[in-house]
Specification:
With about 80 residues, this protein is α+β, with helices and mostly antiparallel strands. The chain contains two helices and four strands.
């Protein structure tokens, strides 16, 4: 088990370099409503849509950038609009 975890951690920087971002022109659809999403809400939206484990959430202007580790081992970067 430790060997598998060590291999995964060593491979993570390599898979990050080949991550495929979803462009801001293709935002995830959100429920109607006012206000803004929190980081945890943005992470939940991305995780519901794509599955996997949330690695990181950061905000840049009006979008959140959510980095997911998919079950396949691939890292996927998803953008989620900050506004509802």
């Amino acid at each position: 088990m430790k060997y598998l975890l060590a291999c995964l951690l060593l491979a993570l920087p390599v898979t990050s370099a080949i991550a495929t971002p979803v462009h801001a022109a293709e935002p995830l659809q959100l429920a109607q409503g006012g206000g803004e999403l929190s980081k945890s809400e943005a992470a939940a939206v991305a995780q519901r849509k794509h599955g996997g484990k949330v690695l990181n959430v950061s905000r840049s202007g009006s979008v959140y950038r959510v980095k997911l580790l998919l079950d396949s081992g691939r890292v996927k970067i998803v953008t989620v609009p900050a506004s509802r």
